[in-house]
Amino acid sequence: MNKVKFWIVFLFSSVLLFQYNKAQSFYGQVSSKKVQVGTPFDFQIVITVNASNYIPPAFKDFEVAAGPYQSNSSQNINGVVSQQIILSYGLVAKREGKLTIEPASIVSGGQKLESQSITIEAVKSAAAANAPDPKSNSKIDGGDLFIKTGLSTKKCYIGEQVTIIQKVYCRLQIVGLQKFIQPSYDGFYSQAQESTSKGIVSVENVDGVNYNTYELYRTEAIANKSGKITLPSIEQGLVIRKQTSSKPRNIFEQFFGANGYEDINVNAYSKPVTIEVLPLPEEGKPENFNGAVGVFQCKIQVTRNELKANEAFNLKMTITGKGNLKLVGAPNLELPEGFETYAPKISEGVNSKTFDYLVIPRNEGEFQLKGLDFSYFSLDTKRYVTVPSGEILIKVLPPDPNSVGAQVYTSHSQVKETENDVRYIKKGNFELLKSEKEFFNSSTHIILLILPLLGLVAVLILRGKYIKNNSNQALVNERKAAKLAKKQLVKVEKLMLENKKDEFYTEVLNAMNNYLSHKLFIPVADLSRDKVKTILVHKLINETTINKLVSTLDTSEYAKYAPGAVSGDLQSVYRDTVDLITDIEQQLNKKAG
Q1: CA–CA separation, 533 vs 519, rounded Å?
Q2: One-letter-per-residue 3-state SS of 166-186
Q3: What is the tens place of the pLDDT at every residue in 137-183?
Q4: Measured between alpha carbons, how far is 370 from 365 in angstroms, rounded to an integer?
Q5: pLDDT digits over 300-320, tens only?
Q6: CB 384 within 8 A of CB 294
């Protein structure tokens, strides 16, 4: 029963394989699957088997602008002779949209074979388009010439290596290339690689259409930032050979067909391509992680395990594997105290990188080198991996005192105990503190800068106020009246004490006149009893005070000109004069307030 099933499956598979081989021997192909309405394109039927009763496709949505033209060819491979027949048509799309070329059919070996139907996208003609593509090439259809940007991956991590390939595709013969300019990619550390084409144009079938292809640039790129990074479009100049419709100029061109082609310069363009770059995870990131991404091994060697103090040995760290080796920096060594080292010598090989450190121990003793582990991010496991360094023991003997230039260093603790001005350089993570405050940019500095400005503002305000107060001469005189009267009353008091009666009254009269002149803003020559009374009444001075003022003026004036006729106590006159001026001042100030 099982044998019967086996033979049924075998016969069925044989029939399918036979039918498949038949289908590969009879097929159709087009020059482009995206055409313009009204623009001719090529359609070919390829037959590689003995056939008869050929029935062409039903070109319902197309016009046959030319053909069919038949070409035959034969080849002999290992004694097996095969023939190929190609039937060529020139078709023109009648309308826009998705159009289908129906299958053709032949009879081969007594069986009817049909080619696959082909769907064509027809778009507006160039003449009808409102905004032609600025990058379209007027000498050749855009679908027949383009550059394709190939990526080894469209999503990667920071530090992961990505291969970028720029390859040109052309339906016509590529004769030459012009102006090779290696493209640059922002956001990547890139290194150009040798092209695999090596000057040879190959043929590649894309969606049933054969293209002449040539790899222009191959680049190994390593992303150095995360996010979506767009590789811009590139442009490449080419020389292609295109068939012309000109007639032969002589019999030789007609015979050799040299007139039928011309070499033209065209530009091919690629489309922008976006790569998503993922950041490296923070979870589980080792402290000694130095940016290595890939798969690595690490080996550490020392040239000497036993030596004298002040002698040198080499510590080599060799990293091998696949990844961003070129971007892996020198690890920071954590060596014991008293070990000095310098910037390493870095050498690179194929998939390897070596950091060679020169180390000089200054103290004697036995030391274990630690903290030399190497960590990287594995693209296979998406996790960090740490390669342990193992134990490395270094035995340091006492220094040779007879060696020329030998230096013996004491330990850290000894220096600390015996010296006050010598300190070892502190290593590791620590916080720096300022030993003293700086004057610049301090609060004192800022205040001292602001104070002159504040003083200048205050002076300007006071000066303005002074000018305003002294701009009115009447007010100035009014303010001076009391001071002037006080000054003159001092003189009156002195005369009173000296009992100089004549001069006393004269000075009292001058004091009163000067006071009234300044206070009421009346020239002394214009002073009269009536004018004084009128102004004082206008200023709401009570009548008693006015009458007392007039009486004092009359008494003083009378005593000035007839001193013998006036009797009375000088001290009482002096006190009444002071009280009178004080009373007038208070009443005027009260009204003004």
Answers
A1: 13
A2: EEEEECCEEEEEECCCCCCCC
A3: 445 655 688 899 999 999 999 999 899 999 999 888 888 777 777 78
A4: 16
A5: 999 988 998 888 899 999 999
A6: no
